[in-house]
Amino acid sequence: MPRRKVISLFLVLIFIVVFSAGCGGDASVIARVNGEKILQSQLEDRIALIKSGLASQGYSLQEGQDDELLGQIEDEAMNQLIDEALLMQQAKKEGVSVSNDVVQEQIRLMKKQFGTEVFKQLLSQQKLTEDKLAEQIKIQLTAEALFNKVTSDISVDAETLKAIFEKNPAKYEQAKVAHILIAVDENAPEEKVKAAREKAQNLISKLNNGEDFAEVAKNNSEDAQSAENGGVIDYYFTRDDTSLVKEFVDGAFQVEVGQISKEPVRSPYGFHIIKVLDKKDTFEELEASLEGQVLNEQKNEAFSDFFNKAKSEAKIENLK
């Protein structure tokens, strides 16, 4: 599947970002949030964990060479700690809490999903203990519970949805496609790019002459995941979908239902031959998904306003 290549500096998995209790190490106070202390040891732990997460993605940061990036990591680590402290304070004010039993059940499910040994390896790779993981899970579950409470009264009616849809129907149109990928690196020499393009063009000729798309995909596509399914990417996407590369999405919406792309579509992954299997473009077809999308946007905006207001009213002292 032509998934977007994402290099996210601060988007890290649950095993990477940890709310540290600040036990041990340098006890110097570097910040206060409404009087609650954040310690140097907490900041150092968070920085180390972010760097460890980046290292697991193949990034190695060196002082003197990556000072600007290291500075960004320190700023982000501090912001995370401040936001987490404030979030837990707001949850307490709203009467929101998560029991330790619920947290331990989540850990049990994770052990079951990964297997005990793999679970331990993941913790070890990120220099985590099970107790620290439990603390982070508690914060995440508390955040979800607070979000649900703050946004519980938000709803959207059919009339509002239809008005939103009619302002820009193309934005909400959805497509489902199959594709054949002839892979070539975006920085490959011109001769390799030319060879890949010609191969894709030859396959388009075969398809235009009646060969079955699914069979051609199974035998030729270099996207192994979708090739097994005859090239089918088994979900609908919009023009704004960020899980697929833009070139692919743009190419897909230029093709009519039941047709294939007239020319190979170039993306960072190579050349795609796209067949559009279905499109949804009426309000009736899209109402359910549109409701979820709009409701999610409105809830996110409401919670963001709630949290930003709390932050603007908080006494935050950065002592670094």
Quick description:
The protein contains twelve helices and seven strands. The protein has 320 residues and is α+β, with helices and mostly antiparallel strands. The chain has two domains: 29-150, Porin chaperone SurA, peptide-binding domain (Triger factor/SurA peptide-binding fold), CATH 1.10.4030.10; 174-280, Chitinase A, domain 3, CATH 3.10.50.40.
Overview of the structural elements:
With 320 residues, the chain is an alpha+beta fold. It contains 12 helices and 7 strands. Strands 4-3-6-5 form a 4-stranded antiparallel β-sheet. Strands 2-1-7 form a 3-stranded antiparallel β-sheet. Helix 2 (67-93) packs across helix 5 (130-150).
Main β-sheet, spatial strand arrangement: 4-3-6-5
CATH superfamily of the largest domain: Porin chaperone SurA, peptide-binding domain
Second CATH tier, the architecture of the largest domain: Orthogonal Bundle
What is the H/E order?
Answer: EEHHHHHHHEHHHEHEEHE
Rg, alpha carbons: 25 Å
- Helix/strand-derived category reads alpha+beta
Number of strands: 7
Head-to-tail CA distance between termini: 45 Å
Number of H- or I-type helical stretches: 12
Oligomer: single chain
